[in-house]
Amino acid sequence: MEGSKTSSHRTVLLTGAAKRLGKEIALHFAKAGWNVVLHYGSSKQDALETLAKIKSLGVEAIAIQANLAEAEEIKVLFKASIDQFNRIDCLINSASVFEYDRPSQAMHMLTQPSLMGNIQVNLAAPVLLAQEMFHHLQKQPARNDGLVPVTIQLLDQKLINLNPDYFSYTLSKSALLTATEMMALDFAPIMRSVGLAPGITLPSGQQTEAEFLRAHRMTPMGYSSSADDIAQAALFIANAKAITGTTIYVDGGQHLLSSERDVMFNTQ
């Protein structure tokens, strides 16, 4: 863990915040004056660089390493966050396993370890962290500034139009979508639960920049989401006390177009 103790009035805990989309969301919250708990898995150098950028914005921040596939490390992550900042007002689950599999393809069939790996990180960890946050908030006095704590789950536009690509990933995110709605009921009125579903936002896997740009344009608006779009939406949700139990799709309308393949492959 890196950082120093603070008692600032608003703090966000963001998993998978060392790089890519998680990093952009963390920086956006920091620019808005939120202190940041930056979780990372194996990307220590990226995490330290992101931590330095966040602290240069004048807010307090810490970086905590944890393996989200391990239940005990999830507990340690949340306890360390509370020990430093006393209270977490927004939990954003950005960390995820995203590896290609599909039952019909002999070279990419599901295995029990890969399926369970997706479930542990993409489903169990977000729910267990939300549970930790709720039981902590139960013991705290209500805020007097109108902010209602929230957990934000990063989902995926493809959940509206399912296809079998990235089967284990999609299955785990589909379950998390349902969990998001169930937690909204279970945790009210102490804490909100909201889904945030990006479209194709950054190049992934073996995708070239040219392939990404073609896929990014395949929406009704002619563009999908940028990292800044997702960060803005997350900050909006954090401050919008009447939003709970729903998912906001930030994708240029990509979810309105059905596809037999994942958008990663729609580059023709």
What features would you describe in this structure?
- The chain is of the alpha/beta class and 268 residues long.
- It has a single domain (11-265), classed as 3-Layer(aba) Sandwich (Rossmann fold), CATH 3.40.50.720.
- Helix content is 40%, strand content 13%.
- It has seven helices and seven strands, in the order βαβαβαβαβαβααβ.
- The protein has helices at 20-31, 44-55, 71-85, 112-137, 167-187, 209-216, 227-239, and strands spanning 11-15, 35-40, 61-65, 90-93, 150-154, 192-198, 247-250.
- A seven-stranded parallel beta sheet has the order 3-2-1-4-5-6-7, sandwiched between helices.
- α1 links the parallel β1 and β2 (35-40).
- α3 (71-85) runs parallel beside α4.
- It holds the Pfam family adh_short_C2.
- Belongs to the short-chain dehydrogenases/reductases (SDR) family.
- This is SDR family oxidoreductase.
